[in-house]
Design brief:
This protein is α/β, with parallel strands linked by helices. The protein has 3 domains: 91 residues, no CATH class; 361 residues, Rossmann fold (3-Layer(aba) Sandwich), CATH 3.40.50.2000; 268 residues, Glycogen Phosphorylase B (Rossmann fold), CATH 3.40.50. It is built from 33 helices and 24 strands. The strands form 6 sheets. It has a 9-stranded mixed beta sheet with strand order 7-10-11-4-1-12-13-17-18, with helices on both faces. The chain has a 6-stranded parallel beta sheet with strand order 21-20-19-22-23-24, with helices on both faces. A 3-stranded antiparallel beta sheet has the order 14-16-15. β23, α26 and β24 form a beta-alpha-beta unit. α1 packs across α2. It starts with a helix and ends in a 10-residue tail after the last helix. Bound molecules: ligand 26V. The site of ligand 26V has 23 residues, from α6.
């Protein structure tokens, strides 16, 4: 496209879509104008994709997810369409800086963490691969809360991404479905007591090079009777709009819990709301083109992202049986032909189950259907009793498993553990159902866009084919032995670290030394992820630096970021401890030039894009067997930050690919963890065996970091020296050893750069393109509709 055309498009939108004169436009106005100009191009690709899917009568993939952690869309759109140079030049012509404009966009934080971000990466890869697909979710008015610290404690405030107009979505008032709750069920139907509309908002998601675009369809709650004139005329102004307020409550806010199952009525309503609306929409689209419902499994693949959309199964059966008169067993078979389920956690406290009374009150007909499905399953497999019902609860994992054609885990280790733990019995009945699809991340956002310096070096070295085919990074391997090339690689990291240091100074007033090792742990705060192991090691390191300040220490910057669920007390205490320890350590003149600690507030996707390219060391230190996969671990490896980590989740596969010599392994294996936990007083023994660990814990216990309130961390100390379920103390000694190994390599700049570059060169397999190809072939039976010659 000639540059002038794109420039004109921006000005046209500024003038006619925003009603602004270029002389008086704000950064916001320019950002909206640029977004609309980019969106126009995306829409062209989008319509072409839709037409092609219809013309080919292709099988469509439906990805149902309670969360899509998208972040910003503008820069992604610009770069995927190849419009970056034009956009930069156009904005510069108006005296604006491209980065200022694209970073004006608020993050769409419609997710908690890994599960939601995976869904967003998958949407991008589905489009990049030309797989006809829809994402279905909820258009939360408020995404994940905004985090701040007050005296080191986490504070939560509502997030307001929709306060400004959102340029990427199209409201579809014509795409609405009436959904029911409560009421009474009979053997053939359901009379709900309450109804609400689900209304669609569509966002086009464009793939690499703009060759394909799919739809992310998010549902919003609307009242059936939004305005009561009678009440209004009687002067009851608030009551007059009560119906609308209530209906909107359903899509008002994302639940911030990702650690414990919450069992709230509104949560189950949200789950039914978006799952049912999506199933209605899927059937409507199918029936517009096909008369024979028996064809459904050959035209429709539905992926349940965890159990949150599990109710889509019973809803599909209800629509086929109750509403369309299909035989019940046939309806179940059809549903099983379409549905698949991904499990993302083995933590028992995060596995969803619903109280049957609450469930039956809200979805009485669905409860009957589940019982009938369950009874049929029990009858077919009389030897082993596995049920989606029991102890007065509806178990969503079992339900999803029984109604799925394929069930998958998200890393090799996790999938293996699924077979031997949560789904042991079901797996023995259906040994072919469980398969593995190791997670991946989109290389466009997580390398090409967030790390332009490294992207340019790679492209300069091997051409740009890697952006759409990440395993080409392997071609870099021989260059790693070229000292000149390696220096260029290291220079990119140094520049990224300098840029991050400037930002940390500007935004948080903390001075970092870009020469120091940037050691980074960014993720949700959870006991199993063991941020407290990291801070204990930091404290021990500080103590030792104080002992011998003139020894040859490798300078470190310890960076933390992440949110704790508002109700997760222990996780909030960990945040508080890190902040308290940071205050004391950063104020210590004797160690100041060697050790700095910072907890950056309000972690989100955009912050990850800033931090990861500037990281030297990636902290992936969960208790083995607990992290299903991790995806941050892949982003760090790609961007040249070797891992210090346990044999957990996808760490195992990362180490296999980048090589054991390029990975700082420590800690017990999943099997060893189980054995260790069975030993009486394991924590007391571990503490007694390591004076360094004992001294660090003692400092916390004595109030070194909380002088005003010496017993502040009694909870953490008692846990660590008592039950220590996550084996922080047992893994400490080996973690310390691995950290010192990292120190030693870091002092040899060439050796470290080589290790970092090998991580980049050998982690191409962790592209979500590879993951999605796996789902397409092994689970969905879906095909790419990209024109091969393009
Ligand atoms: C859990 C729950 C529990 C019930 C209440 C609502 C709720 C909402 C979210 C979650 C999230 C837990 C599952 C999750 O995020 N798992 C993560 O999935 C990533 C993608 O597969 C994976 O990389 C992480 O290891 C895994 O922890």
């Amino acid at each position: 496209m000639p540059p002038k055309d794109f420039r004109d498009a921006i000005v046209t939108h500024l003038t006619y879509s925003l009603g602004k004169d270029p002389d008086h436009a704000t950064v916001f106005d320019w950002r909206m104008a640029l977004s609309f100009a980019v969106r126009d191009r995306i829409v062209d690709a989008w319509m072409a994709s839709t037409r092609r899917t219809y013309a080919k009568d292709a099988k469509r993939v439906y990805y149902l997810s309670m969360e899509f952690l998208i972040g910003r869309l503008l820069e992604d759109g610009v770069i995927n369409l190849g419009l970056e140079d034009e956009a930069r030049r156009a904005l510069e012509g108006f005296g604006l800086n491209f980065t200022d404009v694209v970073t004006d966009e608020p993050d769409a934080a419609l997710g908690n963490g890994g599960l939601g971000r995976l869904a967003a990466c998958f949407m991008e890869s589905l489009s990049s691969l030309g797989c006809p697909a829809f994402g279905y979710g909820i258009r939360y008015e408020h995404g994940l809360f905004r985090q701040s610290f007050e005296n080191g404690r986490q504070m939560e405030a509502p997030e307001t991404w929709l306060q400004q107009p959102h340029p990427w979505e199209f409201e579809r008032p014509e795409a609405r479905f009436l959904l029911g709750f409560g009421g009474t069920a009979t053997a053939t139907g359901w009379t709900p007591a309450e109804t609400v509309y689900a209304e669609a908002y569509d966002t086009p998601i464009v793939g690499w090079q703009g060759r394909w675009a799919n739809t992310l369809r998010l549902w919003s709650g609307r009242a059936v009777d939004p305005f009561n004139l009678e009440k209004f005329n009687a002067g009851e102004f608030t009551a007059a709009t009560e119906g609308e307020a209530l209906a909107r409550t359903i899509s008002r806010v994302l639940y911030p819990e990702d650690s414990t199952e919450i069992g709230k009525a509104l949560r189950i309503k949200q789950e039914y709301f978006f799952s049912a609306a999506s199933v209605h929409d899927i059937l409507r689209r199918f029936e517009a083109e096909h008369a024979d419902l028996g064809l459904l499994p050959s035209k429709v693949a539905i992926q349940l992202n965890d159990t949150h959309p599990a109710i889509a199964g019973p809803e599909l059966i209800r629509l086929l049986h109750d509403a369309r008169g299909m035989d019940f067993d046939e309806a179940v078979r059809i549903a099983q032909g379409c549905l698949n389920y991904t499990n993302h956690t083995l933590l028992p406290e995060a596995l969803e189950s619903w109280d049957e009374t609450l469930f039956g009150e809200l979805l009485p007909r669905h409860l009957q259907i589940i019982d009938r499905v369950d009874a049929a399953h029990a009858k077919a497999h009389p030897k082993r009793k596995v049920s989606a019902r029991g102890d007065g609860r509806v178990k969503m994992g079992e339900l999803s498993f029984i109604l799925a054609n394929r069930v998958n885990g998200v890393s090799a280790l996790h999938t293996g553990l699924m077979k031997t733990t949560v789904f042991k019995d079901l797996n023995s009945l259906h040994p072919e159902k469980i398969i593995n699809e190791t997670n991946g991340v989109t290389p466009r956002r997580w390398l090409h866009n967030c790390n332009p310096g490294l992207s340019a070096l790679i492209t300069d070295t091997i051409g740009d084919g890697w952006i759409g085919d990440l395993e080409q990074l392997e071609i870099l391997v021989p260059h790693v032995d070229d000292a000149g090339w390696l220096e260029r690689y290291a220079a990119v990291k140094t520049a990224n670290k300098a840029a991050l240091s400037d930002w940390v100074m500007d935004a948080h007033g903390l001075k970092l030394d870009p020469q120091a090792m940037f050691d980074v742990q960014i993720k949700r705060i959870h006991e199993y992820k063991r941020q407290h192991l990291n801070i204990l090691e930091t404290i021990a390191l500080w103590q030792e630096m104080k002992d011998t300040p003139n020894a040859d220490w490798t300078p470190r910057v310890k960076l933390f970021a992440g949110k704790a669920a508002p109700g997760y007390f222990f996780a909030k205490e960990i945040i508080h401890l890190i902040n308290d320890a940071a205050a004391v350590i950063n104020a210590d003149k004797t160690t100041n030039d060697k050790l700095k600690v910072a907890f950056l507030p309000n972690y989100n996707v955009s912050m990850a894009e800033r931090l990861i390219p500037a990281s030297d060391l990636s902290e992936q230190i969960s208790t083995a067997g607990k992290e299903a996969s991790g995806t941050g671990n892949m982003k760090f490896a790609l961007n040249g930050a070797p891992t210090v980590g346990t044999l957990d989740g996808a760490n195992v596969e990362i180490r296999e690919r980048v090589g054991a010599e390029n990975f700082f392994l420590f800690g017990m294996t999943a099997d060893e963890v189980e054995a260790r936990r069975a030993i009486k007083n394991h924590a007391a023994k571990a503490v007694a065996a390591d004076p360094r660990l004992k001294r660090a814990i003692d400092a916390v216990a004595k109030g070194v970091f909380s002088p005003g309130e010496k017993a502040r961390y009694k909870g953490i100390v008692d846990n660590l020296t008592g039950p220590d379920y996550f084996l922080v103390t047992s893994d400490f000694t080996d973690y310390w050893r691995a950290q010192r190994d990292a120190d030693a390599v870091f002092t040899d700049t060439a050796a470290w750069s080589k290790m970092a570059a090998m991580n980049t060169a050998l982690s191409g397999w962790f592209s979500s393109d590879r993951t999605i190809r796996g789902y397409m072939a092994d689970i969905w039976g879906a095909e790419s509709l990209l024109e091969k010659d393009a």
